[in-house]
Specification:
The protein has 2 domains: 198 residues, Ferritin, core subunit, four-helix bundle (Ferritin); 87 residues, no CATH class. The chain starts with a helix and ends in a 6-residue tail after the last strand. A 4-stranded antiparallel sheet has the order 3-2-1-4. Helix 2 packs antiparallel against helix 7, helix 3 runs antiparallel to helix 5 and helix 5 runs antiparallel to helix 7. It is 67% helix and 7% strand. It has 291 residues and is an alpha+beta fold. The longest helix has 38 residues. Bound molecules: fe (ii) ion (FE2) (2 copies). The site of one fe (ii) ion (FE2) has 5 residues, from helix 5. One fe (ii) ion (FE2) binds next to helix 1 and helix 2.
């Protein structure tokens, strides 16, 4: 496989993994939103129907990306909430995770409900712009199935922010006052998500298969090789290796200030190696699985 083809494959793999996570997060969170909308606006059947449609679309998108992997007999790469746009947004606006969001408080308080509507509206508007960009991306366009998936998402997307926007204007909650503040925040969150996604995807235990059973385990964190041992095959070795991983996880995430030059070089080296050997990413496991 040429480097270009390997990179393209890897790009689509990462992209679809991030989408499958966000679509799943979207439709399951919308169950909570529906609960709030039904309780807060019980007589606004049009608004309720629009949120139901939104929920249905996100579930459909999730299924489409899921099939994309199933057809290839692959599992998506492991992605967590550091790659979830809505996760970051809820955290910043409400100061908690999606799971911790107090639906009853959102239902009882008009200002909280307004915040929820704004978060969804801006997340969806951002999603729409993102799809527009992706539909000009040559890797996406080189894959007819992936292109078709994004065309479907593009078609569905406008329906997703409009109902919340309508609620805000109908209820005299002026949108312009917030827009500027949110757009800056939204841009920042987008940049953070991308940077975190890139680093997060280079954090794992990699099993390098040797030719005579001399497999090795590389502990890679944020693109840096932190430890290298013979692959732990026996329970005792596994126990010892788990200890190594726990020790690593106990270290602080990233030191403050600029990264030292040698660590950047190593990161780029590790990145380019996995770019050239994308199939190797299938031999990786999350650090958390070794705890
Ligand atoms: Fe979607
Ligand atoms: Fe959407």
């Amino acid at each position: 496989m040429s480097v270009a083809a390997a990179f393209r494959e890897r790009f689509l793999d990462v992209l679809a993994s991030i989408y499958i996570y966000n679509e799943y997060r979207g439709y399951t969170s919308l169950d909570r939103v529906l609960e709030a909308v039904r309780a807060r606006c019980p007589d606004q059947s049009e608004f309720i129907a629009a949120v139901e449609k939104h929920r249905g679309d996100e579930r459909k998108h999730y299924t489409m990306f899921r099939r994309w992997f199933e057809r290839q007999g692959l599992m998506p790469l492991k992605v967590d909430r550091t790659c979830g746009h809505i996760d970051h947004f809820i955290q910043v606006v409400f100061g908690c995770t999606i799971e911790e969001l107090d639906t009853r408080a959102v239902i009882a308080d008009g200002d909280e409900f307004e915040k929820l509507c704004r978060v969804i509206m801006l997340t969806e508007q951002r999603g729409m712009r993102q799809v527009e960009i992706l539909l000009h991306n040559r890797h996406v366009l080189s894959d007819p199935v992936m292109t078709r998936l994004f065309r479907i998402v593009e078609r569905d997307e406008p329906d997703h922010w409009m109902p919340y926007h309508a609620w805000l204007t109908e209820n005299g909650r002026v949108t312009a006052r917030w827009r500027e503040r949110f757009e800056t925040l939204e841009w920042l969150l987008g940049a953070t998500t991308r940077a975190r996604a890139a680093l997060q995807l280079l954090t794992f235990v990699y099993r390098d298969v040797g030719s005579h059973g001399d497999d090795r385990a590389y502990l890679i964190r944020r693109g840096q090789v932190r430890a290298c041992y013979p692959w732990p095959a026996t329970p005792i070795e596994q126990e010892a290796f788990r200890g190594v991983v726990s020790e690593e996880l106990a270290q602080p995430e990233l030191p403050a200030g600029p990264l030292p030059t040698d660590s950047i070089e190593e990161m780029l080296l590790v990145m380019s190696w996995f770019r050239r050997h994308p199939e190797a990413l299938r031999k990786t496991t999350r650090l958390e699985e070794w705890q």
